[in-house]
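ERR on first pass: missing label on line 2. Operator R.T. fixed the label and resubmitted. Corrected input:
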Amino acid sequence: MKALFRHRELQLVAVILVMVGLIALRFPTFVAPASLGNVFNDTSILIILALGQMTVILTKCVDLSTAATLALCGMVAAMLNNLYPDLPVLLLVLVAILTGALLGAINGLMVWRLDMPPIVVTLGTMTIYRGIIFLISGGKWINAHEMTDSFKAVPRADIAGIPVLSWLALLVIAVMAVGLRRLRTGRAFYAVGGNPHAAVYTGIDVGYTRFLSFVISGALSGLAGYLWIARYAVAYVDIALGFELDVVAACVIGGVSIAGGIGTVYGAVLGALFLGTIKNALPVINISPFWQLAISGSVIILAVAFNARAERRKGRVILKKAEVSA
Amino acid sequence: MGLLKKMLVMAAVSTALVANVAHAENKKIALVVKALGIGFFDAANKGAQEAAKELGDVDIIYTGPTDTTAEGQIEVINSLVAQKVDAIAISANDKDALVPALKKAMERGIKVISWDSGVAPEGRMMHLNPSSNPLIGNMCVKMAADNLPEGGDVAILSAAATATNQNTWIEEMKKVLPNYKGINIVATVYGDDKTDKSYTEAQGLMKAYPNLKAIIAPTSVGIVAAAQAVEDAGMTGKINVTGLGLPSEMAGHVKSGASKSFAIWNPIDLGYAATMISYNLVTGKEEAKPGAELSMGRMGKVKLDDKNEGAMADPFVYDAKNVEEFAKIF
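pass 2 clean. output:
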């Protein structure tokens, strides 16, 4: 089974390489190392969000409020920076992460304690969180010159030739990869989504595990919120509007099963990179904006079709093994 | 007898004087805005006050509801009618909802004009647009060309590909292009008025067109994102970002040098022009009818089209010299 997953990720790597190759035919400088690094940097926020989303999807839930959480946390950080320019940036980043975790916890509690369907809960909080941004900001923008230079500098700062934004994405990838594979809680996410009933018998608290996944997703959205605002140097109500769909799409393309229990960190990262490459390449190869939308949509549908096939095959494999052992 | 006659004459003269004084009573022009406490409209009031000072016999009543609702504006209009103002110049929260109240005002002899945000034709005598599509298109290209004496490649970063106003402006830009030697529009891309997409599109432009000299973004989200992308790419000074934006949002990017200049309407001029037009309608010097040319003091004249609408002027250009000052306003 593991071989199958690896296979799928290799497939995705191959698809991305072919795509980059095709783009290079039309636009050679796209494959320059600096340009590719730029693609990764551009995709960093999507990667961070996708890994949070993946944890939630693994437990058979979905978090549609992730972009709204990002925007709210970003706005909180930006407003604090605007009102108290002396606060250290690190503190603001922490505030953003904690705010995100809190917002995620609200989602999680409703799913866990009130037993509400996650799609409904997060659809609701998605608009509520946007509404809160409007309330706290009064609909006003926080603009580049209203933020301190150090606040805006962090994602751009250079460590060993790579921007901090990329480093943070790498860090999140590493932590999530190790955490999901090695930690008991990490394995619990898979168990809860793969087979909730069996998970109960192994002593896993399904509701609590789901709650945790929402907190993780929220916290990562909070981090992404700060990064987004600092990177684009502007905060307003509609920041990242509709971005949750990209995040879910990245997971789905990366082979994370919407039905829960299946998915890897590398898959989600590759899914995000796939979308990121498309997003970065379409403008340079000069494709009509209407085609851009159509292409992004088709890719997602293709990916889901692939997933559906992959999951079906898995069922057959188990049966065959069962037959053999019987 | 002689004395009585004298007294009578005196009385007559003094009555006439009093009457004259009554005639010379200041004209009351109400500047009604979408809501109080908005920098943009406070600036328009500044312009109205300037016009009043110039005219001498005008009192400006600057008023509006506390939030941007049509109901609030109707209340304000009704109380202005009761106060018997001479003119109402309004920036409307709703095109149609205000029509009955404004009609009533016009029936009482009050001159009604709309500015900035219009009222349906039956509810006002004329509407003053801040600018017009051809003027906006021309200004966008002009701002790019002014910084490119030798010409060069220019790209447009728009909002959604389906946005009517954006497409009209882009059309107008292409129309005036022959007037600007050496300026080539090499691409038009769409950022959908999203920060991240606009940013990526701006990056794409810089990659795809190494000789790019300017990006024109006639959208407030796009221009900010493009300026940030240019700064991040270290292209400040090589690529000039211009277009339509708000001073408060662009101040930082003008300071950094990514944008040398950009344009948007000047609210001070708008308030000034609205007051001047109102005054000329009140004194009966001019009449608002299709084809008429109304004078607006230092802003020149506005020609009305068949819907009694007119465009005030070119969009106002903001650069390093004035952006800080206006950033405080809107």
